[in-house]
Design brief:
Helix content is about 45%, strand content about 15%. By secondary structure, it is α/β, with parallel strands linked by helices. The chain has 2 domains: about 10-100 and about 210-220, 3-Layer(aba) Sandwich (Rossmann fold); about 100-205, Rossmann fold, CATH 3.40.50.12500. A 4-stranded parallel sheet has the order 2-1-3-4, with helices on both faces. Strand 1 (about 10-15), helix 1 and strand 2 form a beta-alpha-beta unit. Helix 3 runs parallel beside helix 4 and helix 8 (about 160-175) packs across helix 9. The radius of gyration is 17 Å and the shape is globular. The mean pLDDT is about 90.
Length: about 220
């Protein structure tokens, strides 16, 4: 009897920063399991070093769509950027499930608490994220969003990132009454456990949340 083809989940970092991609792979290692789907993290070479503006979001939409359309052997996709760039055009490009980490992270947060807060990389990201929450109809359970005022590269490799995330997480908890925190950038992935331990409320890594959903879709035959 021929062996069953191993399923594959492709996690795409839409920026060109390999440090972010490596951090994603490290953060996803615990979710992999024997005989489960292969989880592969790749970098979109055409992307900017960090997706920090609306222009950056728009610039990666078509390259992402082309990558998804060309990946015939993939069973599910995860777009690992908190702005969910190209999510809908990528869904149009394939019959396979495509998950955006913002959407997945927020949906997971709703299952862990009453009101969620988001840690953003910078102030200019917040308007874009709030607009997305409004489109999803979630403003009633959205406690607020506060910025680190750091770049994507700094959040992935900076020495003071965790310290700053703890400060902002406590502000969301104490001032905005958030009882669950979503990390609003894929570059924050390596800090989830330490942040949760420091602030004492659930912390959602949206990439882990999206990959968990992708695994469910693949394992239960929806992909």
């Amino acid at each position: 009897m021929a062996s069953r083809h191993r399923r594959r989940i492709l996690v795409v970092n839409p920026n060109s920063n390999e440090i972010v991609t490596k951090a994603l792979a490290d953060a996803l290692a615990p979710i992999a399991f024997k005989d489960g789907p292969e989880i592969e993290c790749v970098t979109l070479k055409e992307g900017p070093c960090g997706i920090e503006t609306q222009e950056h979001v728009e610039s990666v939409t078509l390259p992402l769509s082309r990558l998804v359309a060309a990946s015939n052997g993939t069973d599910a996709f995860v777009i690992a950027c908190y702005s969910d760039p190209g999510l809908h055009v990528c869904r149009d490009a394939t019959s396979r499930p495509v998950f955006g980490i913002n959407e997945a992270g927020v949906l997971t947060a709703l299952a862990r608490g009453d009101r969620f807060g988001v840690i953003a990389i910078g102030q200019r990201s917040i308007r874009r994220h709030v607009r997305y929450m409004r489109q999803m109809g979630l403003l009633e359970r959205f406690a607020g969003e506060r910025p680190l005022n750091m770049s994507v590269a700094e959040t992935a490799a900076g020495e003071r990132t965790l310290e700053r995330m703890i400060d902002v997480g406590k502000e969301l908890r104490d001032k905005d009454s958030a009882d669950v925190i979503v990390m609003g950038c894929a570059g924050m992935a390596r800090h989830r456990q330490a942040l949760e331990a420091a602030i004492g409320v659930p912390v959602i890594d949206p990439t882990q949340a999206a990959v968990a959903m992708a695994i469910g879709a693949v394992q239960f035959g929806q992909a």
